[in-house]
Each structure stands twice: as C-alpha cells, then as structure tokens.
Design goal:
Distance between the termini: 26 Å
Largest sheet: 9 strands, mixed
Order of helices and strands: HEEEEHHEHHEHEEHEH
Strand order of the largest sheet: 1-2-3-5-4-6-7-8-9
Length: 259
C-alpha cells in the first residue's frame, strides 16, 4: 500500500475540486476504480488537522452544514477550535450499507488505502500534523487505520465507539489496538443508550491501546435527548446540545499532544 501511495504522490495526486459553503469539496482518486470526496476546511489559525469519519454508512452531506450526524452538523466547531479538517464521504465504490460503507469495509486494506491518500493530501496541503477521528461506526475507520501502526498520523480520537456490535464480537476491541503508536482519546457520553456503543467501552479502548504514549478515556454528561432511537442523531449517542464542549475537549487534547 505504501509503495502504491508513493507512486500516486510522485505522479501528483489526481483530484478535482469545487468551492462549497465554508470550504472546498475535493475529489481524490484513491484506488483503481475508486475515488473519495471530502470537504476540506482550513482556518487561518489552524494548529493541527483532522480527518473526520461519520457514523452509519459514512455518508455526510458535504454541501450542507445543517445535515444530520455529529461530524456533519458540528463540523464548523472544529474550525472554530483551530482545527483544519477533511469531512470524508464514503468511497465511490461503496454504496451497499446505508448508502455507504459496511463496517467490514471500514477495516479493510482497501479502505486503509483511501485513508492514507486523504491523510497524505492533508499533510501536503496544510503542513500540519494530521489526526483521524470517527464516531459510532466511524470508529472502525479511524481505529483500524491507527491500529495498522501507521506513523503518518499524529493521533486518533474515537467517539461513541462500537465495542458491542449487534452482530457479535467486540467491535473495534477486536482490532489490534495495542499497535497504535500515537496518542488516543476515547470519548463517551455516560447516558449513551445505543446497545453497540456502551460508555464503558471508552475505558476498555484506552486500556487496550497499551503502546500509545497517551491513551485516555473521557466522559460527558448533559445535553438533550430528542432522537427517535438511542443510536440516532439528537441523542446522547451523538452528544446532542453539548457538541461544543466535546469538540473543545478534542482540540485541547490534540494541542496537549502536539509534537
């Protein structure tokens, strides 16, 4: 994968872009027959960059800042807290699971290639340390990439992590989290009632990341719960009405672990 990525970089990353509200939509060719679109925003005061993975099928509305989902609806707060970001859509060849990525694909080598290409683009564009962050099923993308021991990322943030998926197993705890060599922050809401993302999973993750130089679990309370089901937006699962506190804490952790 790294050899292929070097060839892509040497040849010049192939992408097209369109100016969108509050940022730039970029389309990046990541693999043969596949491309990834993402919304890129870089505030002038940025001190780090983050690649963001939404939950569900990983299909945020890149053109609508008012869309559903924690990453999608709160994306402006990342910029306000000094973080450049890329809000990543599902690859063009992934549409079968809620219109996007199945969790099995999120932990695949193919998806790792997608992420590596976006991270490389971000590093080249911003000249900043790049983190990966995911929420709910998006934690599969972020954790799997970090667990490959990749040294191109500066850290990983996991929110409402999938540690008890309904299909069985231990979710991202079944990944080799002890291979993560970067700082890790696992965030949970104490009132998260989504069966697949129990709050205690944050502690399990921080303990499993034994090789991380700084693995921490952080819990939040408060906010509102007006969602239709416990795993949907507008619930503690997505930190509804406390998004600013959560993203401020993420920015604080990233700044504290900035090399």
């Amino acid at each position: 994968m790294r050899a292929v990525l070097k060839i892509i970089l040497a040849a010049g990353l192939v992408f097209s872009s369109a100016i969108a509200a509050n940022g730039e939509i970029v389309s990046l060719k990541t693999r043969t027959g596949a491309s990834v679109d993402f919304l890129f925003v870089e505030p002038k005061s940025a001190f780090a960059a983050v690649v963001l993975f939404e939950g569900g099928g990983g299909t945020p509305d890149l053109r609508s800042p008012g869309g559903r989902g924690f990453m999608n609806s709160s994306r402006g707060l990342f910029a306000e807290n000094g973080l450049a970001f890329s809000l990543v859509d599902a690859p063009s060849d992934q549409t079968v699971f809620h219109g996007g990525m199945h969790p099995r694909f999120r932990i695949s080598e193919a998806h790792a290639e997608d992420i590596a290409a976006v991270v490389a683009w971000m590093k080249k564009k911003t000249k900043l340390p790049v983190w990966v962050a995911g929420i709910s099923l998006g934690t599969y993308s972020a954790a799997s990439y970090a667990a490959r021991g990749n040294r191109d990322i500066a850290g990983v943030v996991l929110l409402s992590s999938s540690t008890r998926p309904p299909v069985g197993g231990r979710g991202i705890l079944d990944l080799k989290l002890d291979r993560i060599r970067a700082p890790l922050l696992a965030i949970a809401h104490r009132d998260d009632a989504c069966p697949g993302t129990p709050p205690a999973g944050a502690i399990e993750i921080s303990r499993a990341a034994a090789s991380s130089p700084n693995a921490r679990a952080k819990f939040f309370t408060g906010g509102e719960d007006t969602g239709r089901r416990p795993c949907t937006p507008e619930t503690p699962h997505t930190f509804f009405r406390i998004e600013e506190k959560v993203i401020s804490a993420i920015a604080k952790f990233i700044r504290a672990n900035k090399k």
